[in-house]
């Protein structure tokens, strides 16, 4: 009876001293160094290139815009802007691909209104950036191109 009245000490919670250094327990695999991280990023690029038609189109359009810029001898800053906008479109397509994979992983082949919203919005984000990139490329490349004709 008396034993029951004695309050037991609160459990001591062990906190990791550097939680940001702890391995992510739920991950199947974690990249342990920079080289391995690059290898996984490369695998993502290869996957997107060979499976996503839109990614290939973005890569082709970006390459064409850069080549045209070099051919027309636009300034370095203008080339950098074209490179940046092209890379942004491709990066957004990669995020779109990642999101599609996560949605498919979650709902499988079932229809879900939220899955539709997620995929449609991610696709819209790519479209927005692609339109912006084309507009910027037009502003930078059309004047020297028309000048040369
Ligand atoms: N599980 C789902 N539930 C509801 N709607 C879906 C689902 N999966 C796909 N959809 C609809 O079908 C569309 C096409 O899906 P998909 O997975 O091919 O994406 P996508 O963005 O068109 O692909 P990509 O970028 O490769 O062209 C989505 O935008 C969404 O409207």
Automatic annotation (TrEMBL):
Active site at 93 (proton acceptor)
One GO term under biological process is: phospholipid biosynthetic process
What keywords tag this UniProt record?
Answer: ATP-binding, Cell membrane, Kinase, Lipid biosynthesis, Lipid metabolism, Magnesium, Membrane, Metal-binding, Nucleotide-binding, Phospholipid biosynthesis, Phospholipid metabolism, Transferase, Transmembrane, Transmembrane helix
Q: Which cofactor does it need?
A: Mg(2+)
| Main location class | membrane
Subcellular location, record wording: Cell membrane
The entry lists its GO molecular-function terms as: ATP binding; kinase activity
Q: How does it sit in the membrane?
A: Multi-pass membrane protein
The answer to whether the entry has keyword Kinase is yes
Tell whether Lipid biosynthesis is among the UniProt keywords: yes
* InterPro entries in the cross-refs: DAGK, DAGK_sf, UDPK
Q: Name one GO cellular component term.
A: plasma membrane
Binding locations of a divalent metal cation: 100
Known PROSITE patterns for this protein? DAGK_PROKAR
Q: Which PANTHER family match?
A: DIACYLGLYCEROL KINASE (PTHR34299)
Give the family from UniProt.
Belongs to the bacterial diacylglycerol kinase family.
Q: What is this protein called?
A: Diacylglycerol kinase family protein
Protein's organism:
Lyngbya confervoides BDU141951
